[in-house]
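Bumping my old thread because nobody answered last time. Still need a sequence for this structure:
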C-alpha cells in the first residue's frame, strides 16, 4: 500500500489516486454524531459533575495514607487535529486545545497521571491526519508522552516483567518501562487498513511514498494493549494484553479490549488472520493473572460503549447505562476498578454494578477530542486496592480556561499537517445553498444521505442506490464547499459496486436494517421509496417498496449501487453478498465530488419523503 505525493498529480486526479491507493476501509459502525442529539451544553454540564465512590470499609481511614493517581481518559479521537467543532456554538477540541487541557489537568500530579485512550484514535479522520496516513494523530500523543516513554523500536528486544512469556507478542517489550504516562488500545478503525498498517502506526516505519511529516516515522512512544484480539493460527494476542505501571511505587494495571463484533464492521481484508474474543472473558483471564502478581488496582480501556440516561441535576451514581458496555461490565471480575470506554461517541460517567454488586466506575468522553474523563483513584498502601474513586467528563472548550492557550508544540504539529495537505483540501468543489445535514428524521431519511445516495446512483447508472449512514461522518455547511470538507464527510475511500438484486432481495436488504444490529441502521436511498412499520416484527417491517410510484416486482431483477464495505456484508447487510453481475466503479468520494461539480450552483438537498414510517 503506497502513499500519495500530493504535488505529483493534477488536482482533478488527486482525489481518485488517494481513494484508489488507500485501503477500502470500514464505513463506520459508530453512531453518526448527529445521533447524539443529547450532546447539548446542558448535557456537557451534567457530564462534568463528579461521581464519587468510597469503600465503606475504609470510611474512617486517614486519606493521607492513600496514594492518589489520576487517569485522563479520551476516546474516538479520529485524527481530529484541527479546530472547528462546536458545542452550543462554542469552540471545542482540536489537538492543541485538548493537549492544553490534559497538561493542565495533571498540574502538580505529573508523575501520578496516566493518559488512557480507548481506541479509534485513528481512522475516519479529517484530511490533515488521514492524507498523512494518520501519523500526525500518533505524533500528537507522542508530544504528551513523558521522558520515560520509548519508541517500540527502542524497546524491542528487551526483557519484560509485566506479561507472561506465553503471550506471543513482540511488542511485550513495551511493558518494561513502568513509568510511561500513556497507554492506548485498539478500536475497530485501527483495522481499517489492515493489521500490517495498524502495526506500522504503532511500531514505526514510513511508506515507500510520501508525503511525510516525520522521516523516519518512528511510531508510538507509548504502548498499545489488547487482550481479545488474537492470531487465528496461534491463538495468542497480537499485542500485549496489559501493562503494569508503577505509580508512586504502587502497581496499577491497564487491560485493553475492542468490541468482539469488529469483524462485522470492518472489511474482511482488514481483519484477515485474526479472531476477536469475548471482551469480558478475555479481560477476566488477565485479571486472574494480575491478581497472582499481587496487582489489585486494575483499569480496563475498551473500545465499546453505551449511553447514559438523561436527567436533571447532579450526575447520579445510579444513572442507567445502556448498551453493550453494561453487559460487559456486568461480567467483569470484582477486581476491576474503572473502565474507560468508547465507540458510542456519547458520554458515560457512572458507577455500574457487576453481577456481584461491585460498583465499577465507567466513563466515556464523547468523541473527537471534545472532552476528556478526569478520573481520580485512591489506593490503600496495605491492600494495594482502590478504596476511593471519582470521575468527571470535562469538555475542552476553546474559549475558556486551558483552551485559551493551546499547547504550542502540538499547535505547530497541526499547522505543519494542515499546510502539507492544503493544496488538495482547499480546492472548492461547489457552493451549498444551505446547510445539508446528515441528521436522520424519525423515518430514517436525511438530506445529506439523499445527496450521497443520488451521487452514487448517478456514478454507476443503476436503478437504485443504498448508502450506510455510518459512512457519513459530517455535515455540509452553507457556502463554498471544499474537497477537504467532502473528504471529512466521506473519508473511507470505499469503491462503489454495481450489482443485481431481485425485488425479494431488496425487501430482505431493507429488513436487515433492524436484524442482527446493535441499533437500527437505516440506509440512505436513491431511486426508490418505501414504507416501514415499527409495530411489525423485526424481519418484516418493510411494508412496500416503490419505484416511480409503483410497487416493485419481487421476482424482477434490479441494478443497485452500494459501497464496497456493505457489498461485502459489512454492518450485517448479508444479502448484499448474494448480488450478481458485480462491477467495481469509482471511489465514493470521487463520485460525490463529480456529482456536486456537475450540478447547477448553488446546490442543495432536502428530505423528500423517500422513507415513510408508520407507528
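Sorry it took so long. Here it is:
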Amino acid at each position: 500500500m503506497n502513499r500519495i505525493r500530493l504535488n505529483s498529480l493534477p488536482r482533478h486526479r488527486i482525489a481518485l489516486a488517494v481513494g484508489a491507493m488507500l485501503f477500502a476501509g470500514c464505513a463506520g459502525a459508530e453512531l453518526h454524531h448527529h445521533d447524539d442529539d443529547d450532546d447539548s451544553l446542558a448535557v456537557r454540564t451534567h457530564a462534568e459533575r463528579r461521581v464519587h465512590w468510597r469503600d465503606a470499609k475504609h470510611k474512617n481511614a486517614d486519606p493521607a495514607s492513600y496514594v492518589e493517581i489520576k487517569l485522563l481518559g479520551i476516546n474516538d479521537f479520529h485524527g481530529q487535529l484541527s479546530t472547528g467543532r462546536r458545542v452550543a456554538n462554542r469552540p471545542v477540541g482540536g489537538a492543541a486545545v485538548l493537549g492544553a487541557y490534559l497538561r493542565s489537568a495533571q498540574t502538580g500530579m505529573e508523575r501520578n497521571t496516566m493518559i488512557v485512550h480507548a481506541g479509534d484514535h485513528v481512522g475516519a479522520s479529517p484530511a490533515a491526519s488521514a492524507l498523512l496516513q494518520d501519523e500526525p494523530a500518533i505524533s500528537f500523543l507522542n508530544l504528551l508522552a513523558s521522558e520515560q516513554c520509548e519508541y517500540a523500536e527502542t524497546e524491542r528486544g528487551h526483557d519484560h516483567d509485566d506479561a507472561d512469556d506465553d503471550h506471543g507478542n513482540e511488542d511485550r517489550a513495551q511493558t518494561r518501562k513502568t513509568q510511561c504516562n500513556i497507554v492506548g488500545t485498539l478500536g475497530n478503525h485501527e483495522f481499517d487498513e489492515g493489521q500490517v498498517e495498524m502495526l506500522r502506526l504503532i511500531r514505526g516505519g514510513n511508506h515507500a511514498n510520501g508525503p511525510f511529516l516525520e522521516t523516519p516515522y518512528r511510531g508510538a512512544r507509548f504502548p498499545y494493549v489488547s487482550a481479545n484480539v488474537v492470531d487465528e493460527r496461534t491463538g495468542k494476542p497480537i499485542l500485549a494484553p496489559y501493562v503494569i505501571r508503577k505509580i508512586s511505587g504502587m502497581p496499577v494495571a491497564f487491560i485493553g479490549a475492542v468490541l468482539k463484533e469488529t469483524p462485522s464492521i470492518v472489511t474482511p481484508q482488514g481483519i484477515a488472520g485474526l479472531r476477536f474474543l469475548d471482551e469480558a472473558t478475555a479481560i477476566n483471564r488477565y485479571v486472574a493473572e494480575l491478581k497472582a502478581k499481587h496487582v489489585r488496582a486494575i483499569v480496563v480501556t475498551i473500545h465499546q460503549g453505551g449511553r447514559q440516561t438523561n436527567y436533571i441535576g447532579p450526575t447520579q451514581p445510579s444513572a442507567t447505562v445502556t448498551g453493550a458496555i453494561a453487559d460487559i461490565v456486568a461480567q467483569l471480575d470484582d477486581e476491576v476498578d474503572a473502565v474507560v470506554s468508547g465507540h458510542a461517541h456519547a458520554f458515560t460517567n457512572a458507577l455500574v454494578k457487576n453481577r456481584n454488586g461491585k460498583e465499577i466506575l465507567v466513563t466515556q468522553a464523547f468523541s473527537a477530542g471534545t472532552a476528556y474523563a478526569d478520573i481520580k483513584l485512591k489506593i490503600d498502601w496495605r491492600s494495594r486496592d482502590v478504596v476511593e474513586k471519582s470521575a468527571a467528563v470535562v469538555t475542552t472548550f476553546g474559549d475558556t480556561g486551558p483552551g485559551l492557550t493551546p499547547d504550542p508544540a502540538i499547535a505547530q504539529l497541526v499547522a505543519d499537517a494542515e499546510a502539507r495537505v492544503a493544496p488538495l483540501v482547499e480546492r472548492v468543489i461547489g457552493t451549498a445553498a444551505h446547510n445539508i445535514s446528515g441528521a436522520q428524521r424519525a423515518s430514517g431519511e436525511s438530506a445529506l444521505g439523499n445527496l450521497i445516495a443520488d451521487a452514487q446512483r448517478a456514478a454507476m447508472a443503476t436503478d437504485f442506490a443504498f448508502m450506510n449512514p455510518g459512512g457519513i461522518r459530517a455535515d455540509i455547511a452553507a457556502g463554498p464547499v471544499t474537497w477537504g470538507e467532502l473528504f471529512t464527510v466521506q473519508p473511507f475511500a470505499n469503491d462503489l459496486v454495481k450489482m443485481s438484486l431481485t425485488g425479494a432481495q431488496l425487501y430482505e436488504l431493507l429488513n436487515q436494517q433492524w436484524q442482527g444490529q446493535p441499533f437500527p441502521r437505516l440506509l440512505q436511498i436513491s431511486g426508490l421509496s418505501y414504507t416501514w412499520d415499527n409495530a411489525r416484527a423485526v424481519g418484516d417491517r418493510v411494508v412496500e417498496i416503490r419505484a416511480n410510484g409503483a410497487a416493485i416486482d419481487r421476482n424482477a431483477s434490479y441494478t443497485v449501487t452500494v459501497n464496497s464495505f456493505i457489498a461485502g456484508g459489512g454492518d450485517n447487510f448479508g444479502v448484499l453478498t448474494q448480488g450478481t453481475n458485480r462491477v467495481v466503479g469509482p471511489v465514493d468520494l470521487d463520485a460525490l465530488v463529480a456529482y456536486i461539480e456537475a450540478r447547477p450552483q448553488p446546490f442543495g438537498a432536502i428530505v423528500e419523503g423517500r422513507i415513510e414510517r408508520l407507528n
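The longest strand covers residues 371-380. Let me know if any region looks off to you.
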